Amino acid sequence: MELTGPKSIEAFTEAQQYIPGGVNSPARAFGAVGGNPPVISHGRGAQLFDLDGREYIDYVCSWGPLIFGHAHPRVVQAVQEACTRGTSFGAPTLAETALARQIVQMVPSIEMVRMVNSGTEATMSAVRVARGHTGRDKIIKFEGCWHGHGDSFLIKAGSSALTLGVPDSPGIPRDIAALSITVAYNDIGAVQQVLRQNPGQIAAIIVEPVAGNMGTVPPRAGFLEQLRQLADQDGCVLIFDEVITGFRLGPGGAQEYFGVMPDLTCLGKIVGGGLPVGAYGGKRRIMENVSPLGKKISQAGTLSGNPLAMNAGLVQLQMLTDPEVYTRLEQVSQQLEEGMAANLKKLGLKYTLNRVGAMLCMFFTESQVVDYPTACSADTGRFRRFFWEMLKGGVYLAPSQFECLFPSAVHSDADLEQTLRVHYQALKAVR
Ligand code: KE4
Questions:
Q1: Structure confidence by residue, pLDDT tens digits, 236-268
Q2: Which of 173, 171, 168 lies closest to 147, judged by CA?
Q3: With a 6 A CB cut-off, is 216 part of the ligand 1 pocket?
Q4: What is the tens place of the pLDDT at every residue in 280-296?
């Protein structure tokens, strides 16, 4: 039974003629849940509207960027005003410096920052800078973490988790895959062993300080601190991929939340206010090797620092300097978590709920979810049915068990109450 309206189906059918899978990013294709995605007409605050006029309470929020919901008046006004002065110059502007200064002021470990156009560009560039800075080639990454579609990241663990990686996508040369070593998230022993087995060869350890791409998986107590110690002992660069956690867990992101400072930080999503912005930055002694400075480590981009995107990001970050925003964000997230837990209890269900600040995920498993294998113990078939029950009820979740809910500061109490009513009915329907 088609659960999407006729106009969405017609529009999505046509999209598939011109765009692979009808989408510009595979996560949107509903592959994990089946059926046709609603084609969106517009958004306002915490609400999304599709071509058939259906209204949804949105917990994707463009996969995290919209911490103030859709079409926030101040963001819209900033972009409109910037537009009237021209959309792009490919030359220095005041807006780039203003956003860079704002990032440096908010993110504790960042002394110098470079703008790019996506989280992928940020992580790709940070790894290249780490390699250029250390003169080393290999990197350590973690199973279940996603750092965008750069070649060095589309690598799964080798036959034994500690051996060199193998490509996780066609088109990735084996020689590049061999330089990425993937170990289990939260497994500090595995990191120690890889560093011991590859003395002086690891350029960087890249980690999501809270994993947000296998659902929500927090770092074990001490895990981030131990990564910091190991990186210091080995001389490799510690990179926090804060594309999701940046500005979501607080003004200073996960590094402020946990009190652990990386050498480089990757940002995306919230930093652009919904426009295409990524950024990477960190210690001045490292960033002063980025072209045209020092060792001239290359990174470039026609639209990097685009004035529309800079102004959208700047106004969004400026709004985030109001502590009341995070008070509200925590209230919203806590109400969601507590309400979901109450629904599970009422129905005698014991599914696992993980939450860190405004990142949360309900897993269709009773196991504790602490890494990728335990996340994969979730019943994705049941999630799929649950997803459609929620969508039918007007609640728009990410179409995968392995994503977070991304609440915003503008979800109202009425939105939350309605969400939890639908959540209860959806759980009951798939019990
Ligand atoms: P983008 O290139 O999509 O802007 O950022 C890549 C990226 C890097 N690091 C982390 C921790 C990320 O979560 C992402 C992108 N996130 C996914 C979903 N969680 C974006 C959705 C999509 O791929 O369409």
A1: 999 999 999 999 999 999 999 999 999 999 999
A2: 168
A3: no
A4: 999 999 999 999 999 99
CA–CA separation, 166 vs 313, rounded Å? 37
Host domain of residue 106: 73-319
Count of structural domains within the chain: 2
378 and 270 in a common domain: no
Our answer on whether the CB atom of 123 is closer than 6 Å to any ligand 1 atom is yes
Which pLDDT belongs to residue 14? 98
- Give how far Cα 281 sits from Cα of 103, 108, 260, 343, Å: 9, 11, 15, 42
User: pLDDT (tens digit, 9 = 90+) per residue, 332-368?
Assistant: 999 999 999 999 999 999 999 999 999 999 999 999 9
Q: 317 alpha carbon to ligand 1 midpoint, in Å?
A: 19
pLDDT reading at 131 higher than 80:
yes
Q: Are residues 353 and 377 in the same domain?
A: yes
Query: Is residue 413 assigned to a domain?
Result: yes
User: What are the backbone angles phi and psi of residue 396, rounded to the nearest 5°?
Assistant: -100, 105
Residue nearest to atom 19 of ligand 1 (CA): 213
Residue 148 CA: which ligand 1 atom is closest?
6
Instruction: Give the DSSP H/E element, type plus range, for residue 395.
Output: strand 395-396
Which of 300, 319, 338 is the last residue before a domain boundary?
Answer: 319
Ligand 1 pocket test target in 24, 28, 63 with most atoms within 8 Å of CB: 63
CA of 233 to the centre of ligand 1 (A): 30
- 208 within ligand 1 shell (Cβ under 6 A): yes
68-110 pLDDT, tens digit each: 999 999 999 999 999 999 999 999 999 999 999 999 999 999 9
